[in-house]
Design goal:
This protein folds into two domains: 223 residues, Creatine Amidinohydrolase, CATH 3.90.230.10; 64 residues, Winged helix-like DNA-binding domain superfamily/Winged helix DNA-binding domain (Arc Repressor Mutant, subunit A, Orthogonal Bundle), CATH 1.10.10.10. It has a five-stranded antiparallel sheet with strand order 7-6-8-14-15. The protein has 300 residues and is an alpha+beta fold. The protein starts with 6 loop residues before the first helix and ends with a strand. Bound molecules: manganese (II) ion (MN) (2 copies). One manganese (II) ion binds next to strand 4.
């Protein structure tokens, strides 16, 4: 993929992502409407010259990832919450993915510090041809040294143009079977340790508020309205994840219902909310890093 990486556009996306993440952290306050926070962040990205590469994820306490507000969502950030904000920015399809955690309780400082350290250690071992085993090993060691568990079924990933998860999973645990898998120069990667005081595992929750076009045709027939919506989202977002609330002005119909139908017909991928299996509190920090022959550039 090296021939399709535009470093200037990635750096622009990175600057916007850093500013958006800092802005987002400042918005996380008890009583704030999650919908307002996410929409403010997405507006900030657009006003800064980027586009959201996926809906703002704001995941609270034992919710590890993939929560974005639905249409008319009335949830608020609770007192004492541990809040993950995960943001994606793209410039012409060149994506930077970044996340931070805010502890509103004052009780989870060690969890957050441990997760930050795991991310820093992961970044410090990244170089051309580093083994995926080594990245996972330093993350797991840092998290366990802090007294917590890494979430073993959540991982970092490589990123392609208009593709958030481009096929490579970068583990948050030591996995000897990955020893031979190495980061090639010209690879864009997201590193994202998750640490918890729970079981170290996430399970799918019942809610899906994020979808993406699979790039495949339907397994069964579509109504004309479904076909029209599919045509719209595939042109607007390609295969990037999107939220129903981004479509609130679309023909004024029941967009959430149509998306559920398109999901059931196999043309949309759904991202269930991911919940810590032991209902542990989860922290996450994420950087996107460009690995070249000569450089390791932390974009955001
Ligand atoms: Mn992310
Ligand atoms: Mn990511």
């Amino acid at each position: 993929m090296s021939e399709v990486l535009d470093v200037d556009k990635l750096k622009a996306a990175g600057r916007i992502a850093v500013a958006s993440r800092e802005y987002a952290v400042g918005l996380v306050k008890p009583g704030a409407l999650v919908l307002d926070v996410c929409e403010s962040i997405e507006r900030f990205i657009v006003e800064s010259g980027g586009l959201p590469a996926f809906p703002c994820n704001l995941s609270i306490n034992e919710v590890a990832a993939h929560y974005t507000p639905g249409l008319g969502d009335s949830s608020v950030i609770p007192e004492g919450a541990v809040v993950k904000v995960d943001i994606g920015v793209h410039v012409d399809g060149f994506i930077v993915d970044t996340a931070a955690t805010v502890d509103l309780s004052g009780e989870y400082g060690k969890l957050l510090e441990t997760t930050v350290r795991a991310l820093e250690e992961a970044v410090s071992v990244v170089k051309p041809y580093v083994s995926l085993y080594d990245i996972g090993r330093v993350i797991e060691r840092a998290v366990r040294d802090g007294g917590f568990k890494p979430i073993r079924n959540l991982s970092g990933h490589n990123i392609g143009r208009y593709i958030v998860h481009a096929g490579l999973s970068i583990p948050n645990v030591a996995d000897r079977s990955l020893y031979r898998l190495r980061i090639q120069p010209g690879t864009l990667i997201a590193l994202e340790p998750f640490a918890t005081n729970g079981k170290g595992l996430v399970v799918d929750g019942p809610t899906i508020n994020i979808y993406s076009y699979t790039g495949r045709g339907p397994k069964m027939g579509l109504t004309s309205l479904e076909a029209e919506l599919l045509d719209y989202v595939s042109r607007e977002y390609r295969t990037l994840p999107f939220a129903a609330r981004w479509l609130r002005n679309w023909k004024g119909g029941d967009v959430e219902g149509l998306l559920k139908l398109l999901h059931s017909k196999g043309v949309l991928h759904g991202y269930p909310v991911l919940i810590e299996a032991g209902r542990g509190v989860v922290a996450q920090f994420e950087h996107t890093v460009l690995v070249t022959e000569s450089d390791v550039i932390v974009l955001a």
